[in-house]
Specification:
alpha/beta, 4-stranded antiparallel β-sheet, 5-stranded parallel β-sheet, 11 strands, about 325 residues, Rossmann fold, about 15% strand, single chain
């Protein structure tokens, strides 16, 4: 817990993942070595260890995939954008400490994280005090404060609760502090072991006992978003065979949004900076997998979509129109 080095150095699981990534990176580096470019970084902070480790492993390959595409395209202007990934253990106090390590690296211009409300909230002041923008996907917008450097990509919890009105039977929504508000009955012990209702772990743990449970979410199953599967077709080659999950969609979109902002900052000022990237994010318009990302005056994606699902009798989720 006292070691705050990048997760690339401390996570055995991520080391295995990097084993699959490094050969690809080496080939891309060789292709670009004729014209050396200065490198800037974006950071990913998420859990990579413990019960919630799948959060990081859903996000990491999607981010790497988006970055690999820009490297293959020759970088952005005179720059190559690389990444650094940190493990926050899904622990708020630890996340705050890790955020300090992110901000002291002068090459890091912005961060994507932490994919949980509690850890994101704990780390926010570290980023904002360092004038670093943070993109917060997969967290309800109204769980985070309005701030010039906090870009909220998730729909508000109020909108998700309202969407639960589409659930069969019109059951009254349960206002949950969890990522996904839901209608139905579920054992609190099981809930504590899940990162979300869409994960393979949810299908295994809940099974048929979840029949009828209905939930709202910021990201759909890949099968329900036709544009996602081709965009993430290279995911398994990076992940070592694991398939992309709904959270991978959010991570991919967040990375592409940030890359577009970096590109705009370089075009406007010749070189990227934390302040320049943050300003570019305020004016971004990106056609992503989840929709057209545009931040309002409070740095909230006001049109962030909400998806509603219901567990059938076999324990599988089905989209509620």
């Amino acid at each position: 817990m006292g070691d705050h080095r990048p997760v690339c150095s401390v996570s055995h699981g991520l080391s295995r993942l990097l084993t699959a990534v490094l050969p690809v990176c080496m080939l891309l580096a060789l292709a670009a070595c004729a014209v050396p470019r200065p490198t800037i970084k974006i950071a990913l902070v998420a859990p990579f260890e413990g019960v919630y480790r799948e959060v990081g492993y859903d996000a990491f390959p999607a981010m790497r995939l988006a970055l690999r595409e820009q490297i293959a395209a020759g970088g952005i202007g005179a720059y190559q954008v690389d990444f650094v990934a940190y493990n926050d253990n899904a622990d708020a106090a630890y996340a705050e400490q890790v955020a300090h390590n992110v901000t002291i690296d002068p090459a890091v211009v912005a961060v994507i994280g932490h994919f949980r409300a509690d850890t994101t909230l704990a780390a926010l002041h570290v980023y904002t005090e360092s004038q670093m923008a943070i993109l917060a996907p997969d967290v309800a917008a109204d769980r985070l404060p309005a701030d010039p450097l906090v870009f909220r990509m998730g729909p508000p919890m109020g909108a998700m609760n309202q969407a639960l009105g589409r659930c069969p039977g019109g059951a009254r929504p349960i206002v949950s502090v969890w990522t996904q508000p839901y209608v139905g009955s579920i054992d609190s012990g099981l809930l504590a072991r899940l990162t979300d209702f869409q994960s393979p772990a949810a299908a295994h743990l809940l099974s048929a006992s979840a029949a009828g449970l209905c939930f709202a979410t910021a990201t759909p199953a890949l099968a329900d978003l036709p544009s996602a599967e081709p965009a993430l077709s290279g995911f398994a080659a990076i992940s070592g065979g694991a398939a992309p999950q709904p959270r991978s969609i959010a991570a991919y979109d967040a990375t592409e949004v940030l890359l577009q902002a970096i590109r705009a900052d370089i075009a406007a000022h010749g070189r990227p900076s934390r302040a320049g990237v943050a300003d570019a994010l305020r004016h971004i318009r990106y056609q992503g997998l989840l929709g057209t990302v545009v931040f309002d005056g409070n740095n909230e994606w006001a049109d962030a979509p909400v998806w509603v699902y219901r567990f059938d009798r076999a324990g599988h989720i089905e989209l509620v129109p």
